[in-house]
Amino acid sequence: MKPWNIFVKLSDLRVSIVLFALIGVLSLVGVVNPGVFDSPVFAVCLYLFILNLVACIIVRIGRNFHSLRTIGPDAAGRARALGSIVLHTGVIFLFAGGVASQKMGYIRYGSLGIGATMPVQDRDFLLRVDDFSIDNNSKGEIKDYFSTLSIVRDSVVLVTKKIQVNDPLIFEGIHFYQSSYGKDPYVIQDAVLHISSDLMAIDTMVSVPYDDTIALGKRGMFVCVHDFFGDFVIDMKTREPSSRSETHNNPALKASLFDSFGSVLFDSWLFALHKGFHMQENPVVSIELTSYTPQLFTGIQIRKNPGVPLVWAGIGLASLGLVLIFYGPLLLRKKKRE
Amino acid sequence: MDIQLFWISFAAYFTATIFHVLFLGLNRTRLGHVAAVFMVAGLAAQTAALIVRSVHTGHVPLTNMYEYITMLAWFAGAAYIVSIFSIQSKIVQAITGPVIFMLYVSASLLPKKAEQQLVPALQSYWLQIHVSMAAASEAVFLVAFVSSLLYLIKAGVQQPNPGNFISRLPEAERLDQITYGAIVIGYPLFTLGALFAGAIWAYRAWGNFWSWDPKETSSLIVWIIYSVYLHVRLIKGWRGRATAFLSIAGFLMALFTFFSNMILGGLHSYGN
Question: What region holds the ResB-like domain (chain A) (predicted)?
């Protein structure tokens, strides 16, 4: 069979309809079972569809080559024929872009606190979070959230940008998106403790930086907070604490109070939601966790998307093709009337 | 205030529906005229409602199901007004009008709270471009759906009784043309607005043009159905029953697309 005839067979509309139907039915199944989209059957259908499109374009160009070049009375028909070729070419570019991103790209996620860095795959630079902030409206609702990101190579800052949803940082083909934010389940900024003791005549509120020790007045005592768990749970057999989830459903931390000789006066878990409760036996002082400042992290999505230029070209070509097919004849008719 | 205007337009569309039904039953042209007047009044009140809501919230009302469905009804109402002059068939209007009222009934059942604070992902000018073009294209597909249904009724009865509803329908060929004309308007709008503008926005907000999200996938199926319609009609010259069924399938799939995120969740579940 001659190559031209192979193209003609492949470009048959019946082949296109069958492939359209197969892709449509598989997509419908994929709406409830997304695993279909990763299946070889779906991939084969898509590749056959592209083959069919390529054959269509070649056959159309072959058949319309002369009529597309000559200026004749059927300008509207030519606009449609040209538009059809451009539209089909655009769809092929869209597909090629998708395949390029899927085969050569990647997606990574990072949950980073302020000051944290993260290496970027395939690149010799680091991503650093310089700042994270949440913008609230007058009602206290979240308006937007922002991360200030820096790209650092060999301790040199190459670029800095404040990103938000819908406005990513793009550097050397890598996209950094503001994806989410949250409270760190294992670290806080500081805790406010209410320390009281009738015996020692103390009744004070003190803000203690996390994992740090501060002096308590002039009495020579020291207090520290440590081992925070956002969703505290304790294994009753091993007595090992852990966090049941990444949320702050049951925030708890350990507070330790020492006298001037370093002897432990208090060392127990404190709970933000159960203020009076602690696990210290016969305490000489009472300590309550009044409040705490969570350590926020920013969720950054890092994407390498090498198919983007092809997708842009595809969208541009397909849009131009649509305009030529559906509005070209109208514009030509209007021009003719004028 | 916008809710009061919504109910005023609801009442106008409801009254128009009564007159449309009376027109279908009694075949009095004047009843069709009165129905059209109430449709215009309903559209005017609905336009005012949309403007008031936009001013109140600070953004075009396209961010939840209630707002989307009322916008869809507005575009369908606009298509109805255009059809008064272009199609000039009171029967087609008498069928389209009650369908628009049905959209309004479904909107009336949805929560109507106006959100002044949009979630960050929706704070983009792509919201207006993507959603309004999708709503406009689906409103035009609704016209194609109605004319396809009427085509099947008209073509299914060879010799209707003179004076009855079927005999007063436009010729089958004319209904087929109306369907084709509507799809020719809706298809590029849908491709550019629902698919391409949506893909560009998804790329800016989520980092990916396409995610096989339920709404995206079902939109792709809608696009496939109308693509098949145009291919078989323009290349193979198919007309009539087969293309009417494709047009109906396309709109039913568009309806499924509309509700898919309510049932299946996904990235488009902002305004459920």
Answer: 77-327
